[in-house]
Amino acid sequence: MDPILDLARPSVLRNPYPAYARMRETSPVFWHELLGSWVLTRHADCLAVLTDSNGFASDWRRAGEEIPAPLLSVQTLDPPEHTAVRHLLLDGFRAQDRQALHDDLEGRITDLLAESARRPSFDLVGDLAEPIALRFVTAFLGVPAPELDWFVPMSRTVVDGMDAGLWPEKHEPAVAARARLAEYAGGWLADPPKEGLIAYVAAHAAESGVAETVLRNSLRAVLHAGYESASRLLGNAAAALLTTPGALDAFRAAPATAVDELIRYDAPVQADARVCVADTELGGVAMKAGDPVTLFLGAANHDPLRFAHPAELRLDRAPNPHLGFGRGAHACLGASMAIRLTGSVLGALAREYPLARPVAEPEHRRNLTLRGLDRFEVTLRPDTGEEVRP
Q: DSSP states of 137-195 as a string?
């Protein structure tokens, strides 16, 4: 079977890392016909591409591709265009009272966990990770959170479209969902809130020199990427803690390093893409200008040449140079915030509910680019020997 399509089989989707290891051992750099792309699986090769924006582009216009204006954002532009919008957003991030935001969120986390503890079991994804992540990112932006029932399916459809290279039928629904998100976010700069990242961007937009279309698209990207990264990280990390014997106790002992290890162990972002802009050689393979390159970051984060015993969850692992949030010019803007949010939620879980346990196996969504759970039924009650029902 095709080694990449095989990743979507339910048994492999639960744990793709042995399959990544086979790819890395047999052909660490290989051409995949269906993707029409080089595939990289080693940490060193992925890091080299991520940190070389001169040789490998995120902006595919540099390889002659036409990119519609609605898709130009901080995620898709390269320096020097990328630099201005990234600096504006970074300055906006730094200007926010992040401590106040986290203080407010701590109360919400406590309330949600207490509410969940009163039930026989609950879905950690739909009842905790998704509402917390959406409240977090919209509070940071300074706008009200949309209804989960409206936002979540649309956001998931956009994520499904990230795998359209393998399943082309996912492309059009994703384009439509992205357009609806753009329409939703369209009025933010015209009528900005008084506080939050959007307020800062609106106040400094004119002096930044960034086109309004790019600003709008970038704020929409912050909403979507921030929500998906945070919610999927929370789900993946909680699943790792609750299905690995002793891990919840170990989290309390090493909170400073634990979240980074959880990201390395089962990161939401499993793949990223670039395009060669000049003939080059990487990993012993000659690549031509215009060749797409797919980086399997999930494989890179389990590379034994970079991490000792990569299949083991070692919450005290340090240093931990994982690529879960990328590197270089396109490293995740909100990485530190996502790490702190995840630490807050899992810290409260480990501290207040040390007997938390899964009721059923985590169910993964059929996504290869952005890995995450569909459902994870958990109980916060002690095991009395009785059957627990949702």
A: HHHHHTSPPPPHHHHHHHHHHHHHHTTTTT-GGGHHHHHHHHHHHHHHHTTTTTS--SS
